[in-house]
Design brief:
four-stranded parallel β-sheet; 423 residues; single chain
Length: 423
């Protein structure tokens, strides 16, 4: 009896909302794990899985999710341990509201990944509300809801069921655990998150798999650092200084892919002045609603390209992009094929037998070089470009550095042999 009294003094236990509060994340965690199970194991509307190997991505998502919830468990427990008894219910209600909001964001993220292969981010949210005013937007959204009604209903259940369970659990008040328990929860949660980052290989890949608050927080941090701002006068002036001395041929002729070896051979025999230099520029994430060459605004932002568009440009206003993900888009830009709904082409580069545009032009006598601002090994692209191009260069210093490298390489290539340059 004396030992029991001493223990009660050393580790006091008092009625609180702690245990009830800890059950809230547990209930919502189970719902999240069920949602992730469906995301990786149930076919998307295209009939394919989100990932060819669900285990490789799913385990990272599950581990990061469990780790995040364990950290929340521990922090809430410690907060309630120190909080006055009257504050318990207020903390409980705030926690419930936060978890419901998180569940809504997470399920929206699931549907974006199923339909578009994208994560919910600040850019998408901004353009969503912008597009909401355009005609046909809500009818398109209703069509989506009708076509994927079962998945939408399941998402609703994964929000409402844990909410109902939380309201039932909120009626219970039990004894509080020791602070050491919450400390271990935080430690184990941090280890799980770090381990998921290790399994995710790279920060950009882990960002695609982490719990939705993490990529949103990373987006917000980038915005605060000014990443979302349009190029300023100094940036534009630096680019103009690089490209202003150049004057291009105003004809901009187009050449179509040869349909046979005979026509390709005839093209290869043409004199150099009839086989003009070819430049292909690919811009990461340049959305159609941002760079609409039909808009008068573009004449101010990019007068030369706007003039080129007005001269002989074509706007494809209704199309399906084959540019997701980025590595797939780079490969398809050269191959001219549709992207696979669930498998990345660069993974199977050895089995790709289609000839790329640059390979066809090289057969016609063209020099070729590929420039990039990001490391191609991230998407396993180095095998493609090494096989297709004469050489490739990495210029991670920004757009100006990339443009200067292009001009330097152009001046260093043979002037009597046509060039194919992809940037």
């Amino acid at each position: 009896m004396i030992r029991a009294k001493l223990n009660s003094v050393k580790h006091p236990t008092r009625p609180s909302w702690t245990q009830s509060l800890l059950l809230l994340p547990a209930v919502f965690l189970l719902a999240r794990l069920a949602s992730l199970l469906g995301l990786y194991l149930v076919a998307t509307p295209t009939g394919q899985l989100v990932a060819t190997d669900p285990w490789s991505l799913g385990r990272v998502s599950v581990l990061a999710e469990i780790g995040s919830f364990l950290v929340v468990f521990g922090l809430l427990g410690l907060a309630l341990w120190k909080a006055p008894p009257r504050a318990g219910r207020a903390i409980w209600l705030v926690t419930l509201g936060t978890l419901v909001g998180y569940a809504i964001l997470a399920e929206a993220d699931v549907h974006l990944r199923r339909w578009m292969g994208l994560r919910l981010n600040l850019v998408f949210v901004r353009h969503f509300f912008t597009a909401a005013h355009e005609p046909g937007f809500w009818s398109m959204l209703r069509t989506y809801l009708d076509q994927d009604a079962r998945s939408v209903a399941l998402s609703g259940a994964l929000i409402l069921v844990p909410l109902a369970a939380a309201l039932v659990l909120g009626r219970r008040q039990t004894e509080a655990s020791r602070p050491r328990t919450y400390g271990w929860m935080i430690v184990l949660g941090a280890v799980a998150i770090a381990w998921s980052g290790h399994l995710g290989i790279a920060l950009r890949k882990w960002r695609m798999l982490a719990p939705i608050p993490i990529p949103l927080a990373m987006d917000l941090a980038r915005e605060l650092r000014g990443a979302g701002k349009a190029p300023g006068p100094a940036d534009i002036a630096a680019l103009l200084q690089v490209i202003a001395p150049r004057r291009s041929d105003e004809r901009y002729p187009m050449w179509h892919q040869a349909r046979s070896e005979e026509s390709l051979a005839r093209f290869a025999q043409r004199p150099p002045d009839e086989r003009l230099d070819v430049f292909v520029f690919a811009v990461e994430s340049l959305r159609g609603w941002v760079a609409d060459w039909r808009s008068p605004r573009m004449a101010t932002l990019a007068p030369n390209l706007t003039a080129l568009f007005k001269e002989r440009g074509v706007a494809f206003v209704r199309n399906h992009s084959n540019g997701y993900p980025s590595g797939e888009g780079n490969a398809n830009l050269n191959l001219g094929v549709w992207s696979h709904p669930s498998r990345a082409l660069p993974v199977d580069h050895v089995a790709v037998r289609s000839r790329s545009l640059v390979q066809i032009l090289r057969q016609a006598g063209y020099q070729s070089v590929w420039f990039t601002g990001s490391d191609p090994s991230f998407d396993n692209l180095q095998h493609f470009v090494a096989r297709w191009y004469d050489r490739w260069e990495l210029h991670p210093g920004g757009d100006v550095d990339l443009a200067q490298g292009l001009i330097k390489a152009y001046d260093g290539m043979k002037s009597d042999v046509p060039r194919f340059m992809s940037v």
